[in-house]
């Protein structure tokens, strides 16, 4: 119940100077860009490893299917990362003014 009203009180109201809005959005932007970069790197590494599995499957249907699924899910993950990046950049841009 109290957490609903916690957003209504700014730091200045209780004697805390805190960060300015521009500093806060810059910090969030930097943090989110780092998270998205790491997630993108992991997705690309999974695609590379899945490609190696595919190349070394020697015709085994199970390994081929596992590699194809890993590639598919990594591509879907990259699409989700791009969409999340776009949405958060829009929201942060609106918050910064």
TrEMBL record:
The chain crosses the membrane at residues 34-55, 70-92. It comes from Candidatus Mycosynbacter amalyticus. Keywords: Membrane, Transmembrane, Transmembrane helix. This is Uncharacterized protein.
């Amino acid at each position: 119940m109290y957490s609903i009203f916690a957003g209504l009180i700014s730091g200045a109201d209780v004697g805390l100077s805190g960060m300015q809005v521009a500093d806060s959005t810059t910090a969030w932007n930097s943090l989110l860009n780092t998270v998205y970069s790491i997630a993108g790197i992991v997705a690309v590494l999974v695609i590379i490893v899945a490609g190696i599995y595919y190349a070394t499957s020697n015709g085994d249907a199970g390994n081929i299917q596992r590699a194809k699924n890993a590639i598919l899910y990594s591509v879907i993950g990259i699409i989700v990362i791009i969409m999340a990046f776009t949405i958060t950049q829009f929201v942060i841009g609106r918050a910064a003014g």
